From TrEMBL:
Gene3D superfamilies: Glycosidases
InterPro entries in UniProt: GH, GH_1_N_CS, Glyco_hydro_1, Glyco_hydro_1_beta-glucosidase
Active-site residues, record numbering mapped to chain: E168, E364
Top class in the EC scheme: hydrolase
Protein name: Beta-glucosidase
Binding site residues for substrate: Q22, H123, N167, Y292, W412, E419, W420
GO biological process: cellulose catabolic process
E.C. designation(s): 3.2.1.21
Protein family: Belongs to the glycosyl hydrolase 1 family.
Keyword annotations of the record: Carbohydrate metabolism, Cellulose degradation, Glycosidase, Hydrolase, Polysaccharide degradation
Catalytic activity, reaction form: Hydrolysis of terminal, non-reducing beta-D-glucosyl residues with release of beta-D-glucose
Domain of life: Bacteria
Length: 457
């Protein structure tokens, strides 16, 4: 039994998260077009367990059941994503009204249950028609995104109090275009940088489009990690600084300061960068932070070959290498459990950006543990997940006591789901999903989070 969690502000927002491709299924039910992830999962060897998201957790047809589970938790908000290709099958042009109707129904169900809808407009699933034309390497995709944002906001803005433009542009750039581990599976390494710029431009144009349609409280969900240096040589420090620049500052600096962190880097990016930065840095109402763990980075050691993290191989010819953090427990994904890394990260953001940093939300925080129902009782006793979230909530409270202006915390995720290139091997949910029957079973962590919210702490 854990000690009571310290008290949070009365208006602190407790929420849960999910994304369209990972849970919806019904990929062609209403005229939805294919996405980059549909194509990627159709290529042999791309998904580690050989699965696909054709059904996923069947949220498209079971959304009322899932909203009822959220209402049982007592959460104040649900962060979901809108499938771009369900709304615009070709990524632009003709609007698929049936697809838009689904999100209309979902938002109505959430509102009726007292849960604030918090949609993310892009969570990695680029419409395939746009991907074939270059995807995020093509500037036109940013313009298409803005038009899509307008379509969604014109339908939903009257009931949505919290908007997210883009989720984790760093992962799309690095894993999708740089290393080829995620859709679209390109291995461009540093030639992937235009994908970063165009996603940031899409964010800025999306903010403009959302505001024009009457949307309020707009932010972005960016992944961030404290970067720890492996070793004490100048080469190790330079490697860690470069990794920090490519994974943290490359995405936060343009949004929060209106400049790229390095002039040489900016010169590699396409288009009228100086003008684009004025759009990218449009003032935000809040800034979203997705935190999972710190990263330990040092200089590469050619004799040792490449490095890896979470099953993703880092090529040996890059100017940095990711090392294992020794000591902490690990999730089933192999990620180190370092709750105080969240406090360290938030303190670092405050130090780096000062008064340019708007209020924050923790838009993702979660862990993968493959705990299933007990064969006799049916109970899912995921005590490791409880310990993980308990530790991170306490670390968050410490960060807020030190001055971090954090307004809410979203657990990833409400349901076990299709975990991208891992398939169904990794389970992040507060609710267990039997992928044969699709039965939902709230885990012990669901009860822990329900009681945390109910206690007012």
């Amino acid at each position: 039994m854990t000690a009571p969690v310290p008290e949070f502000p009365a208006d602190f927002l407790w929420g849960v998260s999910a994304s369209a491709f990972q849970i919806e299924g019904s990929l062609t039910a209403d005229g939805r077009g294919p996405s980059s992830w549909d194509a990627f999962t159709g290529e042999p060897g791309r998904v580690k367990d050989g699965s696909h998201a054709g059904v996923a957790t069947d949220h498209y047809r079971r959304y009322r059941e899932d909203v009822a589970l959220m209402a049982g938790l007592g959460v104040g908000a649900y962060r979901f994503s809108v499938s771009w290709s369900r709304v615009l099958p070709d990524g632009h042009g003709r609007v698929n009204e049936k697809g838009l109707d689904f999100y209309d129904r979902l938002v109505d169900e959430l509102c009726a249950s007292g849960i604030a809808p918090a949609p993310t407009l892009f969570h990695w699933d680029t419409p395939l028609a746009l991907e074939k034309n270059g995807g995020w390497l093509d500037r036109d995709t940013a313009e298409r995104f803005a038009a899509y944002a307008s379509v969604v906001a014109e339908r939903l803005a009257d009931r949505v109090p919290l908007w997210i433009t883009i989720n984790e542009p760093a992962e799309v750039t690095l894993l999708g275009y740089g290393l080829g581990e995620h859709a679209p599976g390109r291995r461009l390494v540093f030639d992937a940088l235009p994908a970063a710029h165009h996603q940031l431009l899409a964010h800025g144009l999306g903010v403009q489009a959302l505001r024009a349609a009457g949307a309020r409280q707009i932010g972005i969900a960016a992944s961030h990690s404290p970067i720890w240096t492996a070793g004490d040589t100048d080469e190790d420090r330079s490697a860690a600084e470069l990794y920090d620049l490519l994974t943290n500052r490359l995405f936060a600096d343009p949004v929060l300061t209106g400049a790229y962190p390095d002039e040489g880097l900016a010169s590699l990016l396409p288009g009228p960068v100086a003008e684009d930065l004025k759009t990218i840095s449009a003032p935000l109402d809040w800034y979203g932070v997705n935190y999972y763990n710190p990263m330990l980075v040092g200089a590469p050691r050619p004799a040792a070959g490449g490095s890896s993290f979470g099953g993703i191989e880092i090529p040996s010819d890059l100017p940095f290498a990711v090392r294992q953090i020794e000591g902490p427990e690990r999730t089933d994904f192999g990620w180190p459990v370092v709750p105080d890394g969240m406090r360290e990260l938030l303190a670092g953001l405050r130090e780096r950006y000062g008064d340019r940093l708007p209020p924050l939300y923790i838009t993702e925080n979660g862990c993968s543990y493959d705990d299933g129902p007990d064969p006799e009782t049916g109970r899912v006793d995921d005590t490791r997940r409880i310990a993980y979230h308990d530790g991170h909530v306490r670390a968050l409270h410490r960060a807020m006591a030190e001055g971090a202006d954090v307004r809410g915390y979203f657990i990833w995720s409400i349901l076990d789901n299709f975990e991208w290139a891992e398939g169904y091997r990794q389970r992040f949910g507060l609710v267990h999903v039997d992928y044969e029957t699709l039965a939902r079973t709230p885990k012990a962590s669901y009860a822990w989070y329900r009681d945390l919210i109910k206690s007012g702490r």
